[in-house]
Each structure stands twice: as C-alpha cells, then as structure tokens.
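Checklist before submission:
- one chain only
- standard amino acids only
- sequence pasted in full

Submission:
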Amino acid sequence: LVEGWTKNFASGAFSSTPLFIVAISLWMASMFILPVRLASAVIGLQGLYAAIYGVLYALMVALLVYGASRIGRFKHAAVVVYPVCLVFFLAVFLIYLFKKIFRRPVRWGGRDIKEGG
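Returned file contents:
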C-alpha cells in the first residue's frame, strides 16, 4: 500500500503545477489543524473553545460527507475519523518527499520506477 501510494505521489507531483500543490497542501493543513485544536481544547478543559472547535469539526465532517457522497461510496464513519486517514496520508507523503529530496528510488511491484511514470 505504501509503495503504491508513493508511486502515485511520484506520478502526480510530476504532472501537477506548483500552485495546485500549494493549494492542496494548505487545504490539507487546515483539515489537520482543526482536529488538533479540538483535541487540545478538550484536553485542556477549555469548554468554550472545545464547543467552537467541535462545531467547526462537525461542519468539516458534513462537508466531507457531502463531497465523498458525490465521488464514491464512502462510509460515514470513515469520514468522521478522517484525521486518522490524513495522518497515514501525510506519513506516506513524507516518505515520498524524503525519497525525492535524497534522490532515493521509488519502488513499486519490486522494481524502481522513474519520476513521473
């Protein structure tokens, strides 16, 4: 799974514009920051902030459920716990960046693949 996604990052990043990559990165960062802020407010017993972030999180999940229903058949429970999936996605992306920066080969199917292919 990790090799396949890393290969797809190599292919997708090669064919994407820098502006698109920046826009996606900002969108993903906003999706990651919200649950972190919510957890921090809950752990810190900051009731008002926890309530605000809870409402914002519910709105984010509602938007994701709506978007997911338009592109496929995703379980609502999977969308509610999207931060877990996002952490996995970011971990694989960091693996790709490491390989890109240090000129390591991206492997898939037991062989090295060329960037963009």
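Reviewer check: Strands lie at 106-108, 111-113.
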